[in-house]
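Lab notebook page, bench 4
Experiment: in silico fold of construct C2
Operator: M.H.
Input chain length: 296 residues
Purpose: comparison with the prior construct
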Amino acid sequence: MSAHKKVAGPDKVHGARWWRELGWRHVVGVVAVVYALIPVLYIFSAAVNPLGSIATTELIPHNFSLVWFQELANNPQRPFFRWLGNTVIVASVVVVVQIFFSTLAAFAFSRLRFKGRRTGLLTLLLIQMFPQILATVALFRIFSTIGQVVPAFGLDTLAGYILVMMGASLGQVWLIKGTFDSIPKELDEAAKIDGAGHAGLFFRILLPLLRPILVITGLLVFVGVIAEFLLASIFLRSTDVKTVSVGMYGVLQGDMSNNLGWFAAASVVVAVPVILLFQYLQRYIVGGITAGSVKG
């Protein structure tokens, strides 16, 4: 027998069997990608269309112009970049506060044992099931009163709106707790033997291991704040304090046909940094998705 015996490779799937097992999935994937790209292509076409109206915008752009991108920075009645700056400020503060408090609460629920622990977890879950609109009237009345005493935190102020958004500071507890539960508790025992207390265990041992899930939850909160419209439209009415979602909606509502180009250009400017951020943090996202699936 020859020493160079050929090793048989895996059986290849051909014909009808390939179609039944793999082929139809490729077709579904291509259809889904095309379906998702059509609105993106339309928005880009409207952004580079110099006329910028619904009647003149086509799926494939025939004329190319950056006039609407220039308009974003040159129209003081539509201070887009001020709105974008307001949004970044709100999102940054809310992300830091929400992740910090959610991580502290997740540590307590995962690593400590105390009376009411299970009830507290279920209460958090129950609160998150109620839609945000149910609290709108109550929040409006509360901050109307606060504004009469402390105007800096009342209606139509960024500080007041940030305070409202920080009401969901425990919104990521369940996600972060799942990752805490996947970290071996032997680390806790080793740290306590070395003399670490709860604070040392949290900040020096466990927190560095939570980087992937913190990135995921931070991105979820960041994108959620950027897209939030309901409360922002009620609390922020002055032009200078609007967030980007409220400002863009107001421009489009003013003249939906002729302002489409401006709206599309603004959408592209908002979307591109978020996409780049997702790409930059992709390795953490993948790690965070798989971290809770394997216990040490």
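Observations: Confidence is low (pLDDT under 50) at residues 1-9, 292-296. The two ends are 47 Å apart (CA to CA).
Next step: discuss at group meeting.
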